Amino acid sequence: MEIENAKAQMRKGVLELCILSVLSRGDAYANDLINKLKESQMIVVEGTLYPLLTRQKNAGLLTYRWEESPQGPPRKYYTITELGRTYLEDLLKSWDELVETVGSIRNNS
Amino acid sequence: MKKTVKANIGGFSYSIDEDAYNILSNYLNELRIRLGNGADAAETIKDIEERISELLSSKLAQQEVVTIEMVNDIITQLGNPDEISGNTSETTRPHERKINKRLYRNPEGSIIAGVCSGLAEYFSVDPIVIRLIFILLLFLKGFGLILYIVLWVATPKALTPKQKLEMKGEPVTLSNIEKSITEEINMVANNIKKADPKNFIEKFMSFIGQIAYWILKAILVVFKVFAIIIGVVIITTMLFVFLILIGVLFFGNVVFSWFSPEISGFSIGEFITSMFDISSSIWVTVPIFLILAIPVIALIYAGFRIIFRFKARDGIIGIVAAIVWVAAVVTLAVTVFLQARSLTIREKVTETVNLSEQIVPADKVITLKALESNLDTSALNLDSKYVFFDLTLTTRNGVNLISGKPEFVIEKSKDDLITLTVIKNARGASKILAKQTASEIIYKYTIQDSIIVLDPIFTLPVNTKWKNQDITLVLNLPEGKSVYLDSSLIDLLDYNQPFSNYWPDEMVGKSWTMTKNGLREKR
Q1: Residue % of chain B over a pLDDT of 90
Q2: Which residue of B has its CA nearest to A5?
Q3: Residues B457-473: what's their mean pLDDT?
């Protein structure tokens, strides 16, 4: 198994969490999300994001609205819903737990 | 210079280079396949399309037309369909779909129409090899040209990347077919091992199933090999038939001289014009050619399809070919009908000579002889000779001459006169025409003392066409009178003598007397 693959799998697992985290700090359109996630090297190609956004929207975790853009086509602005916030809290909690567990496993061994 | 198309991407209209458009449209199609059919998928695709649109509009700042570079950049940025659909990790590569290799014309690297470089891709050889083969075939009576044109018309050009992939797919070689058989066997073997049968019967049934499956697969492979063999056989035979057809119809001299070098033959076209009332032989040869050649070409084409299994744009060509074929049949039918109409009525012209008065002395036995045939090819330096039913078509110094053999019978006179009757028969569109044609038949005989010399052939005047002309010579012999038949008459004597039970070869060289019971040998 290649290291890159293992890393990609890890990132994939927490990508949902990351999207919701970014949105919890304010509305964003796809490009903002992509830039943020790319900066932090959470995603390599931006295509990955769209199926996730659609899934989260359909699960009621987020909604969107159209806004005119200064240039080019109108943009979809995503907003996190109340359900999304609860879901994010849940995820963050288990993330913390996970970090703790992993930390203790590493230290014990 | 590039062709540009208009495309609506995410609700906005773009001018986009055709190659770029093809890549983009394939990309989106691939995404659709990977993401499935759900409402989620449609929405995701829409989002991605909108994103593409957005990226395009930012890239298009200065330019007007979307180029292939832009599209490639965007696809790199968005990621490939596998990554987006996320159902595959990077180690388990998406199962590569087996590409069925197909024959295309290769627009990149073409000299004329890309037929050769397409074939080169198909057989995975350097195009120069195929080109050399074609050039060599060109010297083989232009065979290469026909082949090239057939392939040009029949094979589509590889335009889209998918077609280009198909063009370069796995080569169809015997070793590959062998490989696929081995793969099948291994797969079946694994399946048998993997199967976890609960009892013996289940085990047995699954084994039978696997065997049946394997046999089916093997049959399929065998069929493919056979298809290639059949295709090759069809193509070679049909090309041969095609060449023969052209030769016989239009270049008779060449073809006949292959078979018998001393006679330069007629082409069917020349033969038709000299035999029939027809303004030009093309009314017959061209329809015949089309009626035969269209199915032959279709078979050649079918042969190529069997071998190469290419997708063909044969709809319109097929319809056109069918129409042309029907038109040819109609033309031929009309021509034949018009010909047949000119042969509907048969008439005869009779000329009788009283021999009793001309024979000196009157009681001498008449001797009948035939002249030596004067239409011997070698003796007369004929340009050509062609036998058609009982007529012979000869050409001497460029003049066509139709000749035939009269039939000679001996009958019993109803009176006491010895007469020789020449009955000339011909057909025509009307009684008058038929009679006219019949009377024009040229036939000569001479009477000298008691010897009658018959011409072994009758001829038709120059430029008279075939109207089923024939001649019957009747010698009327009263009872008690005798006749000597010279051996030269053997070819003239009719086999069905109404007053004799003997064959011509038994009759010649003897004297015969007419009796109450017919001809009897005179002793």
Answers
A1: 4
A2: B90
A3: 85
